[in-house]
Amino acid sequence: MSATLPSRVTSASAAVTDFASTASCFEIEGLCLAYDGKQALRNLTLRIPRQRVTAFIGPSGCGKSTLLRVLNRLHDLNEDVSRQGRVSLEGQDIHAPQVDVAELRRRVGMVFQTPNPFPMSIYDNVAFGVRLQGIKRKRVLDEIVEWALDSAALWDEVKDRLHGSAWALSGGQQQRLVIARTLAVQPDVLLLDEPASALDPISTLKIEELIRSLKSRLTLVLVTHNMQQAARVSDYTAFLQDGELVEYAATDNLFTNPRLRRTENYITGRMS
Ligand SMILES: Nc1ncnc2c1ncn2[C@@H]1O[C@H](COP(=O)(O)OP(=O)(O)OP(=O)(O)O)[C@@H](O)[C@H]1O
Ligand SMILES: [Mg+2]
Predict the structure, then answer these.
(1) What does the alpha-carbon distance between residue 220 and residue 257 come to, in Å, rounded to a whole number?
(2) Index of the ligand 1 atom closest to the CA of residue 78
(3) Which of 63, 119, 123, 176 has its CA 20 to 30 A from that of 18?
(4) What superfamily in CATH does domain 3-112+189-267 come from?
(5) In a 3-state reduction of DSSP, which class is residue 255?
(6) pLDDT tens, the chain, 272 aa long
(7) Residues in Cβ contact with 240 at an 8 Å cutoff, skipping those fewer than 6 apart
(8) How far apart are the C-alpha atoms of 139 and 93, rounded to whole Å?
(9) Would you say 71 and 189 are in contact if contact means Cβ atoms under 8 Å apart?
(10) Which residues contact 215 (CB under 8 A, 6 or more apart)?
(11) Which one-letter DSSP state was computed for residue 200?
């Protein structure tokens, strides 16, 4: 694990490690979110370190996906959502009026649980966002497509069928294709919401290897139900329950030496 253990601060409700020695990618302060008046996130304050893997764990309905979606403003699409608090990316408030949301979503890419390749060729899937940015020259597109597929550990498996349908790929290959499509537009952050939960064990391991390999150039945030997966791939883990941040620490520490009984009960399976 590359992260060193920094000093800790404890608040009344949460045991939160202060990652003083790592640069922040996101800083979240006093974040509250409600769906139609029903509170889903309660006063969350945490930093997400740059070029690390941060995992969000916790029981179903605790707010993991909600928190992830705030980070690239996916909730803007939902009129029933109300939010308070501040989220900044590299020091800039992501909700400021001058923020270009399309550009924010380019910088902060998102991968969902079920692979969702577009109904087009492998090549066109990866080139899709790049073409939208106005890049049309075939040689440039070819280079970006190869680079992105290679970065997503898929190039060798698909290089001879780039113009075949993306839907003919296996589930695990489709998920890596979606990651390649996201990487092609050069994001700074990759948000992954249970990216391997629909996949077989071998494909899951490939996704985990990929996550580890990407953190040298990206910040990754991973939602997972699988605690072994969080322990295998993440540097830091945040445990959420009922919309609250309960404990947040270096992953090794959180799993081997949780500070709060609530965390221990969850990770030892006494609570689902
Ligand atoms: N679009 C929505 N409209 C209304 N309520 C929602 C919506 N999305 C989520 N919620 C509610 O917000 C709370 C948090 O949901 P969220 O999907 O963030 O949980 P989660 O931790 O990702 O759960 P899971 O592990 O099952 O995916 C839940 O009570 C859920 O019912
Ligand atoms: Mg979820």
Answers:
(1) 24
(2) 1
(3) 63
(4) P-loop containing nucleotide triphosphate hydrolases (3.40.50.300)
(5) helix
(6) 444 433 344 444 567 766 667 899 999 999 999 999 999 999 999 999 999 999 999 999 999 999 999 999 999 878 899 999 999 999 999 999 999 999 999 999 999 999 999 999 999 999 999 999 999 999 999 999 999 999 999 999 999 999 999 999 999 999 999 999 999 999 999 999 999 998 899 999 999 999 999 999 999 999 999 999 999 999 999 999 999 999 999 999 999 999 999 999 999 987 65
(7) 56, 57, 58, 62, 63, 64, 67, 246
(8) 37
(9) yes
(10) 51, 52, 53, 235
(11) -
Type of residue numbered 215:
K
Nearest CA to 127 out of 115, 143, 116 is that of 143
The per-residue b/e assignment along 147-166, b for 16 or more CB within 10 angstroms, e otherwise, is bbbebbbbbebbeeebeeeb
Centroid of ligand 2 to alpha carbon of 44 (angstroms): 17
Which H/E stretch holds residue 71? none
CB-based contacts of 23, cutoff 8 Å, min separation 6: 49, 50
- Which residues have C-beta within 8 Å of that of residue 46, sequence separation ≥ 6? 16, 28, 238, 245, 248
Q: Among 130, 152, 137, 270, which residue's Cα sits nearest to residue 211?
A: 152
CA of 63 to the centre of ligand 1 (A): 6
Ligand 1 atom 31, closest CA:
61
Domain extent listing, the chain: 3-112+189-267
Q: Give the distance (Å) from ligand 1 centre to CA of residue 133.
A: 33
Neighbouring residues of 247: CB distance < 8 A, sequence distance ≥ 6: 14, 15, 16, 238, 239, 254, 258, 259, 260, 262, 263
- Sign of the dihedral defined by the CA atoms of residues 199, 173, 133, 214, in that order: positive
